[in-house]
């Protein structure tokens, strides 16, 4: 397991723009897509390649192609949808497996209410996307669902994480890699990440 905090200047610049209090819905959405795309670039850097023969304009040559397992992107409803286009820009043939969870008011634990996973998920690498890794409850529940369905290779892509959320995921699933634009300071008493982005779902969907 590793936590990869992506310090690339483009990622840091775009994330900084997302932190502006008065950012428009349009701009926030665009930036969530762009940072999602850049995180995908990092998260796919170890996909195995194989050599294949093709007929090029200059005659027969060998080229590299991604081999083996294909990808499924797993947005956690609803805010995860805001990063999905960015992932699909780089992996356009990826299948989408959607997961939704609500928080039980008594136990405060996430309860799945929607799960539509791609068939034969055991043959795919899951890229789970959610802009905010706060307490980590939804992420752990999503990973649980994917594991139960047979998926063995799972990577987590988030824009901002709290140390508490990272700890919860890595305690439960030490083998899983997390790609994050910024590990922020802490959670506040309402479960918001500080300084964070505020309510990422509201900002992506323009709701309040
Ligand atoms: N969800 C959000 O949208 N923002 C946070 O800071 C934490 C959880």
Describe the protein.
This is Uracil phosphoribosyltransferase. The protein has 208 residues and is of the alpha/beta class. The chain has a single domain, classed as Rossmann fold, CATH 3.40.50. Helix content is 32%, strand content 33%. The protein contains six helices and 13 strands. It has helices at residues 9-18, 25-43, 81-90, 137-148, 163-172, 200-205; strands at residues 3-5, 49-56, 59-66, 70-75, 95-96, 98-103, 110-116, 124-129, 132-133, 153-161, 177-183, 186-187, 193-194. Strands 1, 4, 5, 8, 9, 10 and 11 form a seven-stranded parallel sheet that branches. β6 (98-103) and β7 form a beta hairpin. The structure holds uracil (URA).
């Amino acid at each position: 397991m590793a936590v990869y905090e992506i310090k690339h200047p483009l990622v840091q610049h775009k994330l900084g723009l997302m932190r502006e209090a008065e950012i428009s819905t349009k701009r926030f959405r665009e930036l969530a897509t762009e940072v999602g795309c850049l995180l995908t670039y990092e998260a796919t850097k170890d996909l195995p390649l194989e050599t294949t023969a093709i007929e090029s304009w200059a005659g027969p040559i060998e080229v590299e192609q991604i081999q083996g397992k294909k990808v499924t992107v797993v947005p956690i409803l609803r805010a995860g949808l805001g990063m999905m286009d960015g992932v699909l820009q780089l992996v356009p043939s990826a299948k989408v497996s959607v997961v939704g969870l609500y928080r039980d008011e008594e136990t405060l634990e996430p309860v799945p209410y929607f799960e539509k996973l791609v068939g034969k998920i055991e043959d795919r690498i899951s890229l789970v996307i959610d802009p905010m890794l706060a307490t980590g409850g939804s992420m752990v529940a999503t990973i649980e669902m994917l594991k139960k369905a047979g998926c063995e290779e799972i990577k987590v892509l988030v824009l901002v994480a709290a140390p508490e959320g990272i700890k919860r995921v890595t305690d439960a699933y030490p083998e899983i890699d997390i790609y994050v634009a910024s590990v922020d300071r802490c959670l506040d008493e309402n479960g918001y990440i500080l300084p964070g982005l505020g309510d990422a779902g509201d900002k992506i969907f323009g709701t309040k």
